[in-house]
Amino acid sequence: MLGYTVLAQSITDQQLNLVIARLAEGAKQSWELGTRAQALTELNASFYSVFSSTSLPPPTSPPSSVAMKVNLTDVFGIAANTVANLGNGSNSMTPEALISADGAAGDPASLGVAVLLANWTGFQPSRSSTIETFDVSNTTAKNFDDDGQSSTTVSSNSSSSAAPLSTPSTAPTPNANLPLNFAGAARNQLDYLLTVVPRTSDGAISHRVSEVQLWADFIYMAPPFLSYYGVLTNNQSLVSEAYNQVKLYRNYLRDSDANNVWRHITLGTGAADSGHWSTGNGWAAAGTLRVLATIKNSQFANSMKSEQNDLKDWVIEILDGMYGNIAKSLYKPSGLFPNYATDNTTFEDASSTALLAASTYRLAVLEGIYHNLPHAEKSRKTLSTSSHITSEGWLTPVVDPINWTNEGSDSPEGQAFVVEMTAAWKDWVAIGSPGANEALGFYMRDYSSKSLHSGPYLAFTILKFLFASYISVLMHIFFVGSLVLKRDPECHPLKDTQRIDRFMSVLYK
């Protein structure tokens, strides 16, 4: 049974340290750095993670018993380097992305939470701090021409048919003791998203700078920053805007003909990708969960109950779509997702598998939704083996983060997903591994939810269970009954019954 094996086949500390080291080496792009900062926060400084039970806004200083600032050194180092590379830009009132060399409008915002947290806690970079440096001039924007080939030329175009959202009246209070203006950098990033980046006519902020184009990736990058900014500044309209962006993106990208999994890209004249990219669905689920956790633990929790229910249902919708009907029929025996969830001919991808498993554990802890845990456990155990984490600490096989239809040799974001999966799993184990015995893997969620409790997968699972039960009864009657009738002293009813039970345990799987 699953409940007896949750501690087995775990990533070792040595493996995890290697994964983290390779992540530090490989993360160069804005979204890679932002994802690295988030992963390290969840693993090493969970007190400051939105998934912590700590109320938001968090304390400006951690409890004395928690050496949290030490654990956040790398996270704050990423934030410090980001702001330092802006030069005097953070001291101006000009809307500006945290990494302006990136052609994506959404990706730089992934660094926003780390920058806000550095300001909030009063982090001061010093000579003794371990701070990696990176050259933003060498970042490669994820921009593609119609043929899908990489292009490094991104034109500036902030026109939009939608009226710009108003700049919020509140901003983080700059920490006067800090040599870097983290607050100003965060404010400028926010203003850039709200007033410069193009958007659709109904208000969905573009993931691209040069044109209106929506990517599933955006949900992990921008809405968590908007919601966290709103909580720290007591600005509910910003938190509502984070929710609204998730809602709008879902309206554009959710494919009701594919069991509600999301398409990767829509709109724009560049390389649209209408396929159901597994990593894109992971980005969407994980980002939505971060917004949900931020609201749930904030001062706005009571006034935003409906929004929380929606966000929860949308995460369940993605995970059920990925693990359920369509994806289930194509699910690789290895426990890995194909690069495109509805195309079994695409290569296996460990990156998306790790992120979707992380999201499943987070949903279990945050909302008590357990029915996909057997899938997450299978994925985690598979990824813990040496065939998927090399002796150097690289996750394999992985999609190329830049050219997402191709298999890559390594993936910094994939490294971060392993860290996030491990952190989420540890948090789940820490509360007693609830739902570990959901071996049937079908809906057992609260009936007060507005989500459906029916559907092809549920019907199939129930019929499968009833059929297995019927066969079990017949076979028990046949074997035990025949033994009684024959009164054969050489037969052992207990042994034969156990044999049938073993057979039935295979049928139940």
UniProtKB/TrEMBL annotation:
Which Gene Ontology terms cover its molecular function? hydrolase activity
The regions listed as transmembrane in this protein's record are 457-485
Give me the stretches of Low complexity compositional bias: 150-176
Matching Gene3D superfamilies: 1.50.10.10
One Pfam family name from the record?
A: Glyco_hydro_88
Residues covered by region (Disordered): 141-176
Q: Which UniProt keywords apply?
A: Hydrolase, Membrane, Transmembrane, Transmembrane helix
Q: State the Gene Ontology BP annotations.
A: carbohydrate metabolic process
Name of the protein in its database record: Uncharacterized protein
Organism per entry:
Clathrus columnatus
